[in-house]
Amino acid sequence: MTTPTNEPAGVRYLTEDVRAAVDFYTTHLGFTVAFDATPAFADVRRGALRLLLSGPASSGARATPDDAATAGRNRIHLVVDDLDAEIDRLRDAGLTFRSEPVSGPGGRQILIADPAGNLVELFQPAPR
């Protein structure tokens, strides 16, 4: 196995429209663009998370079997300080949510989807 480096962990999301995905993540969720090769591919980052946005022409999308390329129940998990404020901000921006807020022993969360339907969980940890 390759020795781990200090590179951020990466998650690949497949999307039909890389530009729309880049705009969604940078405008609404605080990501910055590290590399932009739209319409094929973009690398956006938020803290230690590297999100690889792969369009149909990217090598990542071409290497994925058709039956595995649909959005599933997996999602990226973004920690926020104030979930209610984030919900209000995103609703004011015209976005809709895929769930209602849910509370559990670890905190509260809500799901939103990017333009391709990939899920993003916004999570506010419970006070400790």
Automatic annotation (TrEMBL):
<keyword id="KW-0223">Dioxygenase</keyword>
<keyword id="KW-0456">Lyase</keyword>
<dbReference type="InterPro" id="IPR051785">
    <property type="entry name" value="MMCE/EMCE_epimerase"/>
</dbReference>
<protein>
    <submittedName>
        <fullName>Catechol 2,3-dioxygenase-like lactoylglutathione lyase family enzyme</fullName>
    </submittedName>
</protein>
<keyword id="KW-0560">Oxidoreductase</keyword>
<keyword id="KW-0479">Metal-binding</keyword>
<dbReference type="InterPro" id="IPR004360">
    <property type="entry name" value="Glyas_Fos-R_dOase_dom"/>
</dbReference>
<dbReference type="GO" id="GO:0004493">
    <property type="term" value="F:methylmalonyl-CoA epimerase activity"/>
</dbReference>
<dbReference type="GO" id="GO:0016829">
    <property type="term" value="F:lyase activity"/>
</dbReference>
<dbReference type="InterPro" id="IPR029068">
    <property type="entry name" value="Glyas_Bleomycin-R_OHBP_Dase"/>
</dbReference>
<dbReference type="GO" id="GO:0046872">
    <property type="term" value="F:metal ion binding"/>
</dbReference>
<dbReference type="GO" id="GO:0046491">
    <property type="term" value="P:L-methylmalonyl-CoA metabolic process"/>
</dbReference>
<dbReference type="InterPro" id="IPR037523">
    <property type="entry name" value="VOC_core"/>
</dbReference>
<dbReference type="Pfam" id="PF00903">
    <property type="entry name" value="Glyoxalase"/>
</dbReference>
<feature type="domain" description="VOC">
    <location>
        <begin position="7"/>
        <end position="125"/>
    </location>
</feature>
<dbReference type="GO" id="GO:0051213">
    <property type="term" value="F:dioxygenase activity"/>
</dbReference>
